[in-house]
Amino acid sequence: MQALKTYFASLRGNHTISRLDMPRIWHSLKAHFRQIKRNGLRMYYYIYGIVTTGTEWHFIIYTPDGIYSTSVNAIPFNKRKAEFYQCFQKIHPTPGLDVIITPDPPVAKTPEHFTVSGTLKHDITADKTVLNIEFLDTSKFLSAIPLYNKNFTESVKAGTKFSIDVDNVPTPNELPLFYSIIVGIGENLDKDGKLQDFFGCSDANFST
């Protein structure tokens, strides 16, 4: 539990796992509680949530008296099959994508097949719009291998369902202990091959 008192790890960030400074947040909450008490109010605040280490689930609760685990024993967690969800994008949310991968789960040094489909709010333009795939090492917040990019060969109007298949997507020589696969569609790549303008995005988290 000591690690939980230091950081609350969110698995669904804007393409990365974000870490919150719990001591600072808790200090602010305590100051708020003291202000409430001075004003003669009787209110009780708490925060609850679920934390995962990638191999275990912990149900936790934050109260004015401290931080507690509500589960006596950690619940085992072993991610085997890919479950892709819409990427969390607070400022400019984009539609999620339907993603099927083979093999599932990925195997190190074994090319992966991706089938990506969905409906976007932007036009897909041949030779301009890009399918972008990233294996993100979530313990280092770095790409495990160079990003994979493939241009669409056919244009699709916004609001029309699309589907694209890609073969031989490289996988890392050694899969990280904790990693995510982020699948995006958009335009304008930076020097590192990352999309700057997303039209759609989904990601899945894995542990080896």
Quick structural overview:
The protein has 208 residues and is mostly beta strands. The chain is built from 2 helices and 15 strands.
List the helices and strands and how they pair.
Elements: H1 2-6, E1 7-10, E2 18-21, H2 22-38, E3 47-52, E4 56-63, E5 66-69, E6 75-76, E7 85-86, E8 98-102, E9 112-118, E10 130-137, E11 142-143, E12 148-151, E13 162-169, E14 178-189, E15 195-207
Antiparallel strand pairs: 1-2, 3-4, 4-5, 4-6, 7-15, 8-9, 9-13, 10-11, 10-12, 10-14, 14-15
- Briefly note the CATH topology name of the largest domain: Immunoglobulin-like
Q: How many separate domains make up the residues?
A: 2
Q: What radius of gyration results from the CA coordinates?
A: 21 Å
CA distance, first residue to last residue: 23 Å
Biggest β-sheet description? 6 strands, antiparallel
**What is the CATH H-level superfamily of the largest domain?**
Immunoglobulins
Q: Percent helix among the residues?
A: 10-25%
The overall average pLDDT, rounded, is: 77
Structural class: mainly beta
What share of the residues does DSSP label as strand, in percent?
35-45%
CATH architecture of the largest domain: Sandwich
Q: How many extended strands?
A: 15
Oligomeric state, counting identical vs distinct chains: single chain
| Helical segment count | 2
**Low-pLDDT residue intervals, each spanning 5 or more residues:** 1-21, 74-78
